[in-house]
TrEMBL record:
PANTHER family: CARBONIC ANHYDRASE. SMART domains: Carb_anhydrase. PROSITE patterns: ALPHA_CA_1, ALPHA_CA_2. It catalyses: hydrogencarbonate + H(+) = CO2 + H2O. Its cofactor is Zn(2+). This is Carbonic anhydrase. Keywords: Lyase, Metal-binding, Signal, Zinc. SUPFAM superfamilies: Carbonic anhydrase. InterPro entries: CA_dom (IPR001148), CA_dom_sf (IPR036398), Carbonic_anhydrase_a-class (IPR023561), Carbonic_anhydrase_a-class_CS (IPR018338). It comes from the Eukaryota. Reversible hydration of carbon dioxide. Gene3D superfamilies: Alpha carbonic anhydrase. The gene is LOC111362122. Belongs to the alpha-carbonic anhydrase family.
């Protein structure tokens, strides 16, 4: 019954806000979107992220339960395409890492280009897996600093073998939700683990907000730093989706002295976007940095050079 209530309320919230904001007018977003000091997404600077080697914040490995076979239906809410759990279906549960308690999976959706950036660089696509603290209603979760947990995973474009595996279960559903006026798809059983990084214990985490109105600052973000692959043909399908414009990502927000932690497993080099993805991302970084006045490092040419030509393993700033 709880799962049914939560899914109903979340769907209702999507409908009520659908026509009230656009990505082209982010300065007019309601709620705390333009007043909050803990907003998302942010530019994650690898050299400034802290490895919590004493496990004061990241107290153990992330735990994923029930992600392998989940009945989900696809929809287009006018801002993104998303896949939500059916009312009576089993709900995956996330725990461990920086989380205190269990979090129940609600839905995953996509942003193109990526919303978060690593050292000033964006990726072609980012998926967000939204979870609510188990046992809370949506209203209760939106009133608590730890009410939601969202996993972010980046995608690289690649033409090689296996580059279509991550999305091959949902791509057949895309034509039915290209337009926001189309009905939801029929439920289909999805292996959500395909959307996780191949190294799911390698990530950054920080406290932030929803990246859509009302931008409540109630999210524990877990941003995996090892991306997965998407084929150019698959990516082309996302660019045809009706989201009210050519893109659906929020501008980068100031970090405002928030601490970004990184897992011990993340102390390694970051995979770079492909050249086409890098060129797209460069344009995005330049435009969003001018518009949002984000923190240092965004679009820096040294970071771009490192992303194109690679970089050795990064030194980690460790918590004392």
């Amino acid at each position: 019954m709880f799962a049914i209530l939560v899914l109903f309320v979340v769907s209702f919230a999507d409908v009520t806000l659908q026509a009230e904001w656009t990505y082209s007018q982010q300065s007019a977003w309601p709620g705390v979107c333009n007043a909050g000091l803990g907003q998302s997404p942010i530019n994650i600077m690898t050299q400034e992220a802290i490895v919590d080697k004493h496990h004061a914040h990241i107290r153990g490995p992330l735990i994923f339960r029930g992600y392998n076979d989940v009945p989900l239906y696809g929809s287009n809410n006018g801002h993104t395409v998303k896949w939500s759990g059916v009312a009576d279906g089993p709900a995956p549960v996330l725990a461990g890492g920086p989380l205190r308690g269990n979090y129940t999976f609600l839905q995953f959706h996509f942003h193109w280009l990526s919303e978060h950036a690593i050292d000033g660089m964006k990726y072609p696509l980012e998926v967000h897996m939204v979870h609510i603290k188990t046992g809370l209603t949506l209203d209760e979760a939106l009133a608590r600093a730890d009410g939601l947990a969202v996993i972010g995973v980046f995608f690289l474009m690649h033409r090689g073998y296996g580059s279509d595996r991550a999305l091959e279960e949902i791509i057949p559903m895309m034509p039915y939700i290209v337009n926001s006026s189309q009905n939801n798809t029929e439920p289909r059983r999805i292996d959500i683990t395909r959307l996780l990084s191949n190294e799911p214990q390698s990530y950054y985490t920080y406290h932030g907000s929803l990246t859509t109105p009302m931008c409540q600052e109630v999210v524990t973000w877990i941003v995996m730093d090892k991306p997965i692959y998407i084929s150019p043909d698959q990516y082309a399908l996302f660019t045809k989706v009706d989201v009210g414009g050519d893109y659906n990502y929020r501008s980068l927000q100031p970090r405002n002295n928030r601490v970004v932690y990184r897992s011990i497993a993340s102390c390694a080099s970051i995979m770079a976007p492909t050249l086409p993805g890098t060129l797209i991302s460069l344009f995005s970084c330049l435009s969003t940095s001018l518009a949002a006045g984000v923190n240092k490092g965004v679009g820096a040419f040294l970071n771009i050079k490192r992303k194109i030509f690679g970089t050795p393993a990064k030194n980690c700033v460790k918590a004392k």
